[in-house]
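Tutorial handout. Part one gives the primary structure; part two gives the three-dimensional structure as tokens.
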Amino acid sequence: MTWDRVAIVERQLDAYLESAEPAARRLAPDAPMRAEGGLTAGAAVALFEDQLTSRQLDVIARELKKTNRSFYTIGSAGHENNAIVGAQLRIDDPAFLHYRSGGFMMARARQLPGSTPMLDTLLGIVASSDDPISQGRHKVWGSRALWIPPQTSTIASHLPKAMGLAFSLARANRFGIANGLPADAIVACSFGDASANHATALSAVNTARYAVRLGLPMPLLLICEDNGTGISVPTPDGWIAGTFRSQEHLAYFAADGELDEIWDTVASAVRHVRERRLPAFLHLRTVRLWGHAGSDAEQTYRSLPEIEAIEADDPLLRTARRLVDTGAADPEMLRDLVRETRDRVAAVAEEAARRPRLQTTEEVTAPLAPSNPTLVALRATVPLATPEGRTAAFGSGLPESATAPTSRTLAGQLNAALADEMLRRPEVFLFGQDIGRKGGVYNVTNGLQKRFGAARVFDTLLDETSILGIAQGAAHIGLLPIPEIQYLAYLHNALDQIRGEAASLQFFSSGQFRNPMVVRVAGLAYQKGFGGHFHNDNSIGALRDIPGLVIATPSRGDDAARMLRGAVAMAIEDGRVVIFLEPIALYHEKDLHADGDGGWLSDYPAPPEVLVPGEIGVHGSVDEDADVLLISYANGLRLSLQAARRLAEDHDLRTRVLDLRWLSPLPVDAIRAQAAEVGTVVVVDECRATGGGVADAIVADLAETRTTRRLNSVRAVDSFVPLGPATSAVLVGVDQIVATAVRAVGRRRHVAGARS
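Part two.
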């Protein structure tokens, strides 16, 4: 039935153009279609051509699918009026698009001479490696030249970063960050009526309004393409208008009617956003033809009369009638345009289907995790501003290391390293809940807002989705965001902003778009006096599952400073998304073995000292044979060092302790080398036993490579972390590590005072 409906809609337009009579008076190309209207006859015909091209791309995608040459049939049929928006926005207005944006893309590309949007779209549909945006990794609407970052599922997940880019435009301009965008650029974001109900969409809209309430510019055009249906679920009549029409700090524009009427409404919305730097909600009425996708059996949830009524409202048919009735075009001209467009699309489709496709693992994964360690090291060590430049920009020409006294805790060293990076790099800015005036829940950002100002260190509303959306949008235009997520457990509220959006951008754009960032996350367990699972989350499995994501986990203060420099340099040089996971329980720890020993304090490592993925820490029996190798990170490192002393004193065992530092990518080569030297390995993983940490991966690799014969692990229990002393029942402790190491070695040396 779906194929029949495609033919019926096509014939419907043809039949009208065959029978239509030309208007009595033909308009000149530069004449308005109606008095006091903004759309000229010539521009209207161009819009019809863009709509027609989009429609024929949908038709040919289904034809190619019949012969297994097409892999994507979610089309734009019925949404072609979004071409009106594409024609009125400029190429330097960043656009984050809904997947039914064929008309928008055709109209946008018309503004750039030499563009080939028809071929580009078809190369994506057939998954060719010649596709200029994703190289066949997915069918996306995207173009570097047209300033359209690719989106994939776009079930509202792109709204927060569009909001974040709009939020960041003024900041980038203020700090002189070159990005090629003019001062009056605006950000467009399109989405469907069903997606408008998603928590992610509501988060972005709420934050946009919140920013306006605070007096901040928010040049964001939200385009809701309302076809009344989410796959098979109808949107209640009036729901979108009722929800968004009367929201404070959000102008509402209803775009319905004829082509020229919609044009004027769109023009008003764009003008409002551009001139007033305030957000607008453009409610664009559309229909959805031919089901959600080629595989969608629409007749299972719509009756034939319902389908026919929707087809009668085909926007191409309405546009053709309007052009003929007003004299903007005559039927013969439009018939020729229809025939020529169909022929061109068919010819280009045959060409696209012959183009090559990705074949190898290396080809597919090439843009996933760019790594240039030599350039990263250079980026980390070379100051990006002279002392005079820093004085002019920040009121301080101090050398970087002068910001930090020695013998500081982990929190103190992080504070110093953040200050250094902000002194050196004008594009760096910090934000999150409570990080500004309060200086962070754990005092890590104390004093930074006072020093660098509220434009570079600021508090956000309590919404992790928006925090990560701001980070992505800012990173798109040359800023280097370091957002803070207050607790690891809170990150799960917004994880798809990392998994589905930030970490996938380089992959789906073939490296043409990047959103580099360093996301500081306070996490893991072992807090004293403040517990429960929400503030002691010891599961990182969801993060380690994300391809290309870097996870840095410092244990000691000096390492934290070096690793932060490396993380920032990686973000800038390689465009990487880095999770900087900071162990809460170690923030203010001073001692290692006994009260007052100062064993967990460290001196500030002056630049250019830096650490990057692959570089591990080794403690204990380094220059001599060791009986056992303990592999750990974060709190587990401290516990392992304490266990190492016990193993030496009570069991006469020599212990080497390896600090992983980086949990993704794991430093596999360094692990193997150390394990091969020692022979007996115990992995100390403070995260949950089943998929919550890294023990599975380390044990599997060492076993599969036969690096060592004696292999054991100590892991936390698969449980949420309870409140109070009961934590010891589920978390890894020193006693467990000692017992497991002794058992792994397979022998025990009795010494005076040995514990049983």
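Part three, for discussion. The two ends are 78 Å apart (CA to CA). The mean pLDDT is 92.
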